[in-house]
Amino acid sequence: MKLAELHWPEVKKLDREKIVALVPVGSMEQHGPHLPFQVDVLVSSRLAEDLERKIPEILLVPPIWTGVSAHHMDFPGSITLRAKVFIDVLHDICASLHHHGFRRIVLLNGHGGNRSSLEVLGQELFVELGLTVNTLAYWDLVPDLVKSLKKTKSSGMGHSGELETSLMLHLAPRLVNQEDIPQGVLGIDEPGPMSGIKRYVNMKEHSAEGVIGMPSAATPEIGEKLYQGALDALEKAVRALQSQS
Predict the structure, then answer these.
(1) Which of 5, 16, 37, 95 is the most buried if burial means most Cβ atoms within 10 Å?
(2) Tens digit of pLDDT for each residue in 88-118?
């Protein structure tokens, strides 16, 4: 079910305490010279839409198309929300769903820069409303698959590297400027004396092209394997949430 296409009497009839409400979350930020700004929200939205086809009884909420991307603002066109604004927007969406009786909410995240804010959001909603919100990044559902498909050593998905480029070659090849795909970089330096210390850095400190990873190694086949693996794992997780008493 797509919330945007329903009418309020239809929502009133739903068993709202048991239905899983799924909210795709992404960003609107640069993804190198070869990928569009919408990569993160496109992938999370497509996963959510395909999941709704598999499990039509879930409630699919319209996506949050921008997120916390201040570290990409050196690249023209990137759009960011302040972390507190991002948290407030999702807080009010989740609180609205809670007000109407929905108790099983999943935030499907497609952007690494949102992660810490989503953790804070989860704490706020539990303390204020007693609401447990399930937040997940799609790549965290398949860590072994991510590791096996990567060509570089950077942790996680990288950024506009071989994995995101492969996903886009699979999902939306017309949006990939293949003639502009850079060789890329092998990844962020290995941990050294500063290991364990966190500090804020802009993307340009890592890459002038806005790339972490090796997009030149991307293929549609890699993208299909990663996407299908993430979709299967997401379906398993949501069905488990549905079955909880």
Answers:
(1) 37
(2) 999 999 999 999 999 999 999 999 999 999 9
